[in-house]
Design goal:
By secondary structure, this protein is mainly beta. It has 2 helices and 20 strands. The longest helix is centred in the C-terminal third of the chain and has 18 residues, at about 270-285.
Length: about 290
């Protein structure tokens, strides 16, 4: 990632690249517009801002030991279901984890889809120790495996050893996650929608969020619209949600006060993406130092 300063961000013009935080999480997608200097200051308010590095060329993959088929059983070790989203990274890698899915298992280990960063293949080798996280619906599991085979037939996937050094973190029934997610905030007045202003979402749940904005705070009960991009399974998806302004936060940032929003009824796509994003953030926050 390439660190940025406030002077690097164009004002009143579409961003030429996406903005990331210091851990590589998406803040604001390319093409969005920062209206003025206060919007720029808000982007930097909670930490560093970066842009992505040029994407590297994927390295050739070693076929490794052949595996004839991927079993498609219903539930595997730790109660993980086939299709479960996984995060995976090398045991000695301090960076972000790649996204993968459990696609099968046998007594001797797991089969997972080829890990990716933003749609680009990550690089793993046979014999490499890896750390993984997975969500069963009730708990997040962190565990260690070894890559026992790197396979291309009948498609590209990894074979992993039986999980060891397992850690379990229970998840509350209505999870909330701390985020630093930039959004476009619009006021609604009947069929009229105001020009968008930058907002930053935090303390996000499926029912609402805490919001900071460079614009004046809306009165409680004001009808709002929020447009933001969620990165789920390495893919960016823009969603638009209707919301209602709630009361200002009692404590917080004096220069950029926060207020609550309650999401209106979400569409099926928006609800699915939001839940997926929240669980990915829970996975990312869980310890991988097993």
């Amino acid at each position: 990632m390439i660190p940025l300063t406030p002077n690097d961000l164009p004002v009143g013009q579409p961003l030429p690249w996406s903005l990331l935080d210091g851990q590589g999480n998406l803040l604001l997608g390319s093409g969005k517009v920062l209206a003025d200097g206060r919007d720029v200051a808000l982007v930097f308010r909670h930490g560093s801002v970066c842009r992505p590095d040029p994407l590297p060329v994927p390295l050739p993959v070693d076929d490794g030991a052949p595996v004839e088929a991927v079993p498609a059983q219903a539930s595997g070790p730790l109660g993980l279901q086939v299709g479960t989203l996984l995060q995976i990274k090398a045991a000695d890698d301090g960076g972000r984890a790649a996204a993968s899915r459990l696609i099968g298992f046998i007594d001797q280990g797991l089969f997972v889809s080829w890990p990716q960063f933003g749609g680009k293949d990550a690089t793993f080798q046979a014999g490499e120790a890896v750390l993984l996280r997975g969500f069963t619906g009730r708990s997040i599991y962190s565990f260690r495996c070894t890559v026992t085979a790197v396979c291309r037939s009948p498609f590209r996937y990894l074979v992993l050893s039986v999980p060891t050094e397992v850690q379990q973190v229970p998840v509350r029934s209505s999870p909330r996650v701390q985020t630093r997610l930039a959004a476009q905030l619009m006021h609604q007045d009947g069929d009229t929608i105001s020009a968008p202003r930058l907002a930053v979402l935090s303390d996000l749940s499926a029912g609402g969020a805490l919001v900071q904005t460079a614009a004046p705070l809306p009165a409680p009960g004001t009808r709002l619209q929020l447009r933001f991009v969620l990165r789920t399974v390495g893919t960016d998806s823009e969603i638009t949600v209707d919301a209602w302004a709630r009361n200002p936060a009692r404590d917080g940032d004096a220069e950029f006060p926060a207020f609550g929003v309650a999401f209106d009824l979400l569409g099926e796509r928006e609800a699915a993406l939001l839940h997926c994003y929240i669980y990915e953030q829970l996975l990312a926050a869980a310890s991988m130092t097993v």
